[in-house]
Amino acid sequence: MYSLHGIGKSFGGIDVLTDISLTLKPGQRLGITGANGVGKSTLINVATGFLKPDSGHIQLNNKTLTHQPAWAFAQAGIQRTFQSTRFLITANLGEQLLLAARAPESKRRLAKLIELSGLQASLHLFPDEIPLPMLRKAEVIRGLAASPEVLFLDEPSAGLTAIELDQFGVFLQQNLGQKTALVVVEHRFDFMLMITDSVVEMQLNRGLVEKGTDVKT
Amino acid sequence: MDMLQTSIDGLMIGSTYALLGLSFALVFGIMRRINLAFGACLLFGASLAIYLEPILGWGAWGLFFVTIVGVALASAYVERLCFAPHSKRHGAVTAMIASFAVWMQLDEISSQLLPQRTHAFQGIEVPNLWWGEVFVRGDQLLHFVIALVSILVLYLLLYKTRLGLLIRATADSPETAHLLGARVPWLGFIIFLLAGILGGLAAFMILSADGYVTPLFGLWSTFKGLIAMIIGGVGSLTGAVIGGLILGLVETHAGAVLGAEFRDMVTFGLVFLVLIIRPGGLMGVKIYRTDSLAQERV
Amino acid sequence: MDMYLASVLTNMTLIAFLALSAYLVLVVGEVSFGQQAFFGIGAYITASATALAGAHVFWGLLAGAIGGASCALVLGLLTIRLSGIYFAISTLCFAELLRFFLLHLRFTQSVDGRIIGPDGPEGFSNIRWIFENNYQVTDFLLLAVTCLIILLIVLFSLERSPIMLGARMVGNDPILAQSQGLNPTRYRLSFITLSGAVAGFGGGLFALFNTHIEPAMFGVMLGIHGLAYAVIGGLGSAIGPLLGVFLDIGLLESIRSLAAYRMIIFGGLVALLLVFRPEGIISPRLVSHLKSRWRNRHV
Fold first, then answer.
1. How far is C58 from chain B (nearest CA, A)?
2. Domain range spanning residue A75?
3. Distance from C-alpha of C108 to C-alpha of A101, rounded to nearest angstrom
């Protein structure tokens, strides 16, 4: 179980996050929506250890992660994707995916995920030779290989067409597994409804507000 | 009284270091690049000046003029060959090594122009001053004034002209500046020219105050400029000026107290301490930490 | 083999150690202007061990490597929060401070009527190991090349392991590296320390070959040359720095007729080369490309 409690973060006098709290159970699918600039990226960055909160704490299965460096978060099982997919451009896809799967079960899981995603043919290519929808899948696979506790997706729909998005959604539904909790920060409501059980909205100065699944856009 | 004398000497030489530091700060602060060929450009300018002196016969002012023009030309060459082709964010190391290669090239050209190990470098004849018990060399005072004036002109250029605005905007964010109409590659060229002119001024001052030039001058001036910039805070123009003055003061005092040998050690030790304790230098320039996302949009 | 050729090749081998040490730091994303200091420390330690303490050359070289590694580790720890130009300049200062220390190191003994030991700016003369053991230039070349090959084997096996890819990730994109659970600090410290060991070992060989070393030999220019070889040759593989060394020392030596204008031509050519191949000749992309073509060769 993963929890954020009382998280606050300000930049140069501006309070971006105020008293944010969040709890995730294994297998939970949560969407976070909200206007531009309201602090969604900041929240992901804090939740995955890339920014340190000014107040509050972060816990994973009774282990406090709050002031650990980002790599410790990753090793503890908190994985994420990035708004613009992040890969080395000097190594091919296969090598980079392998790096994410160090244990034998991870390697097996990785092999299966690659097969299911149709990325087999692209493994020898460099990331700048691979179309965006495949790269986004690759990023997800990279995150899922080690069977993480939580996977954060940062605006995964950016740059994808409706059809590509649909396929991506199906791919996610099929491969997330029971254990991994999912948090998706997204604009595209329909996509978010497809892959999450509940949605919260991040509002300026009000934090995360419950939306439920029966909200009409 | 000795301390005062040493301090004045320190400020005099510090003003030339300030110009050297400014040159580096201009290039690093605005383009995030280190020009390793900087000192070699200075040496080239000076060598060209001495080489042409018998032909032109303009005396010390001729040296002044040709040095600056020579350094500016060399800087333009360096910019076009080593920096313009590597302007993307990750091109920093490549550009630096390319400038190292041109450093070797310019050093060799300079020693072709000046085959002997030492060459006389004529200075401007200015009467010396006695101010109570303090002695001030006339030419060094003139240099100090020229340095001050150049720094003022630079500030006017940067803060009162449209070109200066474009330069400062590019320092902040090259992408935005480009969108707003700044011709960023062309600006890089201008920056290098400016840095070259300042460097040429500093070179003339230092060499004419010493009275001679040796092949070691290139490496030496590169060190001084880098160190002045670091002490003041990397990339900060004001910092470079202050850093240069402080370097001059510290150096002169260390030399007076500990002797010439320990002078360099004190300098390097000071810079090392600055970097360990307060990397941002005097002006507290923010350094980018590898795990901080405040500087990067992720 | 011609004496002159053997000595050029030996020089290339020794400088290769320096270039490889610069390469190891570049791989984790930093620039070091200070590798020459570890080279110099290794030289002095090996010289002291063999000439002063009469140790076997193996222990002498090992001590040199350990000395280089220790200094590098100290530097790495002191500069743990620094990166980019701050790190680069601090390596420069550290190296000059070390060199200053060597300039004032005096510990001489009289052995068989000769003065042996570090003697300040005069340096360390009479490192007589090769004379005592009757080594010809060609013999030493064989020794040096053997050591280099062993180092290359180590580096190549490192290259094939995830450690190297992890290091490259740390060097290219620390944020990505962290998201993959890699600790950038640990990679940095490890590679910097390793680079010190490699440079120290090379310095030890250098001392034995030259029989005389002095602080002036280990200045900034030496370090920047090593750095340049790594960048020009390419960071894709340990072969890159070797290629860089070969291009400078090897090719240039062969156009001795142009000796006077050598640097003018070579400097311009290097800058030009970098315009067209900014990541060096043997770039990481090239190596990755070649690797996957090799793997898929039957497809």
1. 34
2. 25-84+132-210
3. 56
DSSP C32: -
Residue A88 forms contact with C (CB below 8 Å):
yes
Q: Tens digits of per-residue pLDDT, B233-257?
A: 887 888 899 999 999 999 999 888 8
> Measured between alpha carbons, how far is residue C170 from residues A85, B291, C47, C164, C184 in Å?
17, 11, 36, 10, 6
Domains in chain B, CATH or no CATH each: 2-277 (1.10.3470)
- What is the ipTM score, two decimals? 0.89
Query: Is A18 part of a structural domain of the chain?
Result: no
Give the H/E segment covering residue B129.
strand B129-131
Alpha-carbon gap: B271 to the closest alpha carbon of chain C (Å): 7
- The list of chain C residues with pLDDT below 70 reads 255-260, 298-299
Question: Could you tell me which chain A residue has the CA closest to the CA of B90?
Answer: A89
For A141, the 3-state DSSP assignment is: helix
Percent of chain B with pLDDT over 70: 90
Q: Name the nearest CA neighbour of C46 among C31, C32, C35, C62.
A: C62
Q: Is A6 a domain residue?
A: no
What pLDDT does residue C229 have?
A: 93
Task: List all chains that touch chain B, counting a touch as 3 or more CB pairs closer than 8 Å.
Answer: A, C
Residue A65 sits in a domain of what CATH number?
A: 3.40.50.300
Residues C166 and A91: their CA atoms lie apart, in Å, by 11
Q: Is A82 on the interface with C (CB under 8 A)?
A: yes
C295/A124 touch (CB, cutoff 8 Å), yes or no: yes
Residue B67 CA to residue B205 CA, distance in Å, equals 10
**Residue A213 pLDDT grade (very low, low, confident, very high; cuts 50, 70, 90):** very low
Contacts of A103 in chain C (CB under 8 A): none
DSSP letters along A24-93, please? E-TT-EEEEEE-TTSSHHHHHHHHTTSS--SEEEEEETTEE-TTS-HHHHHHHTEEE--SS----SSS-H
Residue with tokens 């280089």: C68
Quick check: A10 contacting B, CB < 8 Å? no
Distance CA B21, CA B222 (A): 9
Evaluate if residue B269 carries a pLDDT over 70: yes
In angstroms, what CA-CA distances link A194 with A148, A165, A180, A182, A212?
21, 10, 17, 13, 13
Question: Is residue A121 in a domain?
Answer: no
Query: To the nearest whole angstrom, how far is the Cα of C28 from the nearest Cα of chain A?
Result: 13
- For residue B298, name the pLDDT band (cuts at 50, 70, 90): very low
Closest to C249 in 3D by CA, of C273, C218, C228: C228
Which chains does chain C touch, 3 or more C-beta pairs < 8 A? A, B
Residue B267's closest CA among B236, B233, B242, B231? B231
Note whether C86 contacts B96, CB cutoff 8 Å: no
Q: How near does any CA of chain C get to the CA of B269, in Å?
A: 7
At B38-89, the pLDDT tens digits run 999 999 999 999 999 888 888 888 889 999 999 999 999 999 999 999 887 7
Nearby residues of B297 by Cβ (< 8 Å), 6 or more positions away:
A41, A83
Q: What is the DSSP letter of C106?
A: B
Q: Which residues of C touch B298 (CB under 8 A)?
A: 175
Within 8 A by CB and 6+ apart from A81, the residues are A136, A139, A140, A143, A151, A152, A153, A154, A156
Set of chain B residues whose Cβ sits within 8 Å of the Cβ of C184: 290-291
- Neighbours of A, requiring at least 3 CB pairs below 8 Å, are B, C
- Continuous segment of H or E residues that includes residue A4: strand A2-11
Q: What pLDDT does residue B174 have?
A: 64
How many domains in chain A?
Answer: 1
Q: Does residue A55 lie in a domain region?
A: yes
pLDDT at residue A71 is higher than 50: yes
What would the mean pLDDT of A113-137 be, rounded to a whole number? 87
